[in-house]
C-alpha cells in the first residue's frame, strides 16, 4: 500500500486521531479514534455535517470512547495503529486505488462503517446511530 496517496483532509484525520488517542492516554490509534477524528474534521455546513449533528455526536462519541475503556495495549510507538485500524486503512486504500485517486475521508468512513467488528461500529451502535442510514451518506 506504499503507492497510496492521501488527500490533505485524510491526512488531517490521522493527525487528529493521533492527538485524540494521546490526549486520553491511549498508546494506540483504534477505529474509535478514527471515528472521532472523522466527525471532528467534517466540513461545516455540508449535508453530511448536518446529518451527523456534529456537536451532539462529537460529545457523545468522546464520552462513549472514554466509558468503553482501553481497547488493547500495544507495545511500540505511541499512537501506533491497531490491527483493525490497519485493516480499515488497507480497505480504504484499495478502494481509492481501484478508482485511481487518493484516499479521502469518505473512503475511511466507508471502510469503518462496513466493518461490523470495529469499536467504531460498536460506539455508533451504543449511541443508537442507524449505521445503515449513515452508510448511505458515504456510498
CATH superfamily membership: Clp, N-terminal domain
Largest β-sheet summary = 2 strands, parallel
The 3D shape can be described as: globular
Helix/strand order: HEHHHEHHHH
Which bin fits the share of residues in helices? 55-70%
Radius of gyration: 14 Å
Which key phrases capture this entry?
mainly alpha; 63% helix; Double Clp-N motif; two-stranded parallel ribbon; 3% strand; 139 residues
Q: What is the secondary structure topology, with strand pairs?
A:
Blueprint: H1 8-23, E1 28-29, H2 31-40, H3 47-52, H4 54-68, E2 80-81, H5 83-98, H6 105-114, H7 119-126, H8 131-137
Helix pairs in contact: 1-2, 2-4, 2-6, 2-7, 5-6, 6-8
Question: In words, what does this structure look like?
Answer:
Helix 1 packs across helix 2, helix 5 packs across helix 6 (105-114) and helix 6 runs antiparallel to helix 8 (131-137). Residues 70-76 have low confidence and may be disordered. The chain has one domain: Double Clp-N motif (Orthogonal Bundle), CATH 1.10.1780. It contains eight helices and two strands, in the order αβαααβαααα. With 139 residues, it is mostly helical.
Amino acid at each position: 500500500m506504499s503507492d497510496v496517496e492521501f488527500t490533505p483532509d485524510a491526512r488531517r484525520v490521522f493527525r487528529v486521531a493521533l492527538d485524540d488517542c494521546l490526549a486520553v492516554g491511549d498508546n494506540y490509534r483504534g477505529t474509535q479514534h478514527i471515528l472521532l477524528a472523522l466527525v471532528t474534521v467534517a466540513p461545516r455546513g455540508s449535508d453530511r455535517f448536518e446529518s451527523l449533528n456534529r456537536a451532539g455526536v462529537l460529545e457523545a462519541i468522546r464520552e462513549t470512547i472514554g466509558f468503553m475503556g482501553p481497547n488493547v495495549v500495544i507495545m511500540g510507538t505511541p499512537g501506533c495503529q491497531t490491527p483493525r485500524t490497519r485493516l480499515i486503512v488497507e480497505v480504504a486504500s484499495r478502494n481509492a486505488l481501484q478508482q485511481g485517486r487518493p484516499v479521502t475521508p469518505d473512503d475511511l468512513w466507508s471502510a469503518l462503517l462496513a466493518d461490523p467488528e470495529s469499536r467504531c461500529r460498536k460506539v455508533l451502535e451504543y449511541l443508537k446511530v442507524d449505521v445503515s442510514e449513515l452508510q448511505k451518506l458515504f456510498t
